[in-house]
Write a structure and sequence with these properties.
This protein is an alpha/beta fold. The protein has one domain: 3-Layer(aba) Sandwich (Rossmann fold). The chain has 11 helices and 6 strands. A 6-stranded parallel beta sheet has the order 2-1-3-4-5-6, with helices on both faces.
Length: about 270
């Protein structure tokens, strides 16, 4: 990757839990590429991870914030702007959670209160982040806002249950707010649909290892790693992608457009 793609740019990276997370790797890449940023996560998530270690490595600070709270977001943006010395050029929404999946509830037996929590945390928080950013006029022109999605937003993956609905909502919000923010300030909004990735959240889904291997055999390039996804996010934060907006961008080694692979056919036929 060319050097200093993000020189002079500032922003916020959410959701860095541990060294396996895409947000964690994005923070390291952003630092390499000359960006200045703050890290944030929900207080409960911060107790589970090691985000303060990442902050030290990136020479930055952590500002706790619940992305479902408008008040927390206002506080986050105010303190981040003060620390960074100006408005933002990029925001990363790397937030997702499903109590139904955590507690083993099937799609036909959802706890609807938990489902609403899934949608609020995993998708509506994306809208709230942009709503508060617009209200506070905190984004610079030609800024970039990214969310992390998954192909279950378009296709059925039974193990993904209500998170599939949440990702579909996330992608719809990216289109709706992408149009609005593009007209207002030339800010672009996109989502990246990543390969199954061995993050803390990913591996918590039942049957993950089996599906990870299936997707790897299906994809002509193999599964994209978290580090490769971080590279893609950095490109989307840079000025090289100024006219890309309202898109769901597949980053999955070709999985999303492969009907069947020779590797899988050989495995099924035994030839």
């Amino acid at each position: 990757m060319p050097e200093n793609l993000l020189k002079g740019k500032v922003g916020i990276i959410t959701g860095a839990l541990d060294e396996n997370s895409i947000a964690w790797k994005t923070a390291l890449k952003a630092k390499e590429q000359g960006a200045k940023f703050v890290l944030t996560n929900a207080p409960i998530a911060m107790r589970m991870g090691a985000i303060n270690e990442l902050a030290q490595e990136c020479n930055t600070i952590v500002i706790p914030a619940d992305a479902t709270s408008l008040e927390d977001l206002e506080k986050l943006y105010t303190e981040a702007k003060e620390y960074l010395g100006g408005n933002f050029d990029f925001l990363l929404h790397s937030i997702g959670m499903s109590p139904n999946i955590r507690k083993g509830r099937s799609y036909g037996d959802l706890n609807y209160d938990w489902a609403m929590k899934s949608y609020d945390v995993s998708a509506i928080s994306f809208h709230k982040m942009m709503h508060v950013a617009e209200k506070m006029d905190i984004m610079n022109e030609w800024g970039s806002i990214m969310g992390l999605s998954y192909i279950a937003a378009q296709r059925v993956y039974p193990f993904y249950t209500d998170m599939a609905d949440a990702k579909a909502l996330l992608e719809s919000i990216a289109r709706g707010y992408g149009y609005r923010y593009g007209k207002l300030k030339k800010v672009r909004v996109n989502t990246i649909s990543q390969s199954p990735t061995k993050t803390t959240a990913g591996t918590g889904i039942g049957g993950f290892d089996t599906f990870y291997n299936f997707a790897d055999k299906m994809s002509p390039l193999g599964n994209a790693s978290a580090e490769a996804c971080a590279d893609y996010i950095i490109t989307m934060f840079s000025d090289l992608t100024r006219y890309v907006t309202m898109q769901n961008l597949f980053h999955d080694g070709g999985y999303s457009f492969t009907g069947i692979s020779e590797d899988l056919m050989e495995g099924l036929t035994g030839e």
